[in-house]
Write a structure and sequence with these properties.
Blueprint: H1 4-14, E1 24-28, E2 37-42, H2 52-56, H3 59-78, H4 82-95, H5 99-110
Antiparallel strand pairs: 1-2
Length: about 110
């Protein structure tokens, strides 16, 4: 199940607004270990605070966005440091090889997005 934060962000962006975490706050006052997140601050001019039904309509898109964010984080660590990438690029140009491209292709194939 996607987070309220992600669904709220998608709702804002789908309505031609830029997400700004100073204008909206998602809060969760856990009671007896039960999570019940809600929008505690909403300061978007010209855009009404979304209803539960409106937010629910973003469930699928929010699940995909959260999954892809996890994949992006994994890819980022596997791509190696920028120094290591530059070294691969330099050696590829010097030696006529494709080590960098092959490395990037492998990271992508090992961590595919939908």
């Amino acid at each position: 199940m996607a987070s309220l934060y992600t669904k709220t962000k998608l709702y804002i962006e789908a309505n031609s607004k830029t997400f700004d975490d100073t204008k909206v706050k998602v809060q969760d006052d856990m009671v007896d270990g039960v999570s019940s997140p809600y929008i505690s601050i909403w300061n978007y001019d010209g855009l009404a605070k979304p209803t539960d039904e409106q937010l629910a309509s973003y469930e699928t898109a929010a699940n995909a966005a959260e999954t892809n964010a996890g994949i992006d984080a994994t890819r980022q660590t596997q791509y190696l440091s920028w120094q290591q990438q530059m070294e691969m690029i330099y050696k590829d140009q010097k030696n006529g090889t494709t080590t960098f491209k092959d490395h990037c292709d492998k990271v992508r194939s090992d961590n595919p997005k939908d």
